[in-house]
């Protein structure tokens, strides 16, 4: 017989120490033992949690909740469709928001099984429990369908830190405007992971801290500008840009028409320096000082040694081109009075 530990009978000091030694997924598992346990755990979680919470809705037959620890995902709970259930799984009864549910082990976490039509209610139930328990809302969303941003927006008055939209497995064509509906939760960062065709409309209606476009090999300068006009940081991992296209972007920046933009990284189709500098040679100077730009996501991008571009209002941008990767990085670094 395994001896039982009277966890709920220990002093507050001891309980606080126990919680401090547990990971978030272990705290979550403890909280669903009973309604009483959930209340006690919540009362003792006085400090803000260190790791951002995520929800992944990209899977065809399930939704996963968890957190990011040192750039690695740790799952806490998932919702699976009923057809995935096998008789070999043993159920355990838990309590979520005063509702008794049967869950079972699924890989490295607990999961409960629902019919597809019940998935929205189950999603809201788990999302609400996580928010109440940790006093934090979901910060990262992985989704194929923009309707998930509306689902979260109905329960969360704040904003997401990052949304990863689409991917290889996403077969549905989604317009960018569908992520910006009135009911959709706002997101500081937006990463578009699906292939985007030549005629894709990149015009934004909301402002962003960071927008990354993974696969748009036919993107032109006007596509980049559509994103740059409302974003502080813009990354295009693929593009159809050549030196003349870059020259156009530089000119528009010099005219203060994309003043919100602080950083731009583009993988060029081709690059010839003299073509990129036409008409602005007198504004460009060499720099040997090493300058890096730390992005919204924490990545470091090298801006120089390279070139400097000075605007009439004294704002200076540094930029450098790496012929090995074909990537050009451009970032605002200084204001000279």
TrEMBL record:
It comes from Caenorhabditis tropicalis. It comes from the Eukaryota. This is F-box domain-containing protein.
């Amino acid at each position: 017989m395994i001896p039982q530990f009277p966890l709920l009978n220990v002093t507050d000091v001891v309980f606080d120490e126990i919680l401090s030694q547990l990971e978030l997924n272990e705290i979550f598992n403890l909280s669903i033992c009973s309604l009483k346990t959930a209340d006690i755990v919540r009362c003792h979680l006085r400090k803000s949690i260190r790791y951002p919470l995520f929800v992944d809705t990209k899977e065809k037959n399930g939704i996963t909740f968890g957190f990011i620890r040192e750039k690695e995902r740790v799952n806490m709970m998932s919702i699976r469709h009923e057809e995935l259930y096998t008789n070999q799984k043993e159920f355990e009864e838990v309590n979520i928001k005063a509702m008794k549910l049967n869950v079972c082990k699924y890989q490295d976490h607990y999961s409960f099984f629902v019919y597809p039509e019940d998935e929205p209610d189950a999603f809201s139930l788990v999302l609400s429990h996580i928010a109440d328990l940790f006093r934090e809302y979901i910060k990262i969303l992985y989704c194929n369908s923009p309707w998930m941003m509306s689902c979260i927006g109905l329960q969360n008055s704040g904003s997401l830190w990052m949304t990863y939209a689409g991917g290889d497995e996403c077969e549905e064509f989604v317009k960018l405007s569908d992520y910006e509906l009135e009911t959709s939760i706002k997101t500081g960062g937006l990463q578009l992971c699906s292939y985007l065709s030549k005629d894709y409309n990149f015009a934004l209606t909301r402002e962003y801290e960071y927008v990354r476009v993974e696969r748009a090999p036919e993107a032109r300068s006007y596509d980049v500008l559509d994103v740059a006009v409302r974003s502080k940081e813009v990354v295009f991992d693929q593009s159809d840009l050549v030196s003349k296209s870059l020259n156009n972007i530089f000119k528009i920046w010099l005219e203060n028409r994309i003043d919100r933009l602080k950083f731009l990284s583009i993988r060029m189709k081709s690059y010839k320096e003299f073509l990129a500098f036409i008409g602005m040679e007198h504004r460009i100077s060499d720099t040997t000082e090493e300058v890096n730009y730390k992005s919204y996501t924490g990545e470091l991008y090298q801006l120089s040694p390279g070139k400097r571009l000075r605007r009439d209002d004294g704002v200076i941008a540094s930029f450098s081109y790496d012929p090995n990767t074909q990537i050009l990085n451009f970032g605002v670094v200084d204001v000279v009075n």
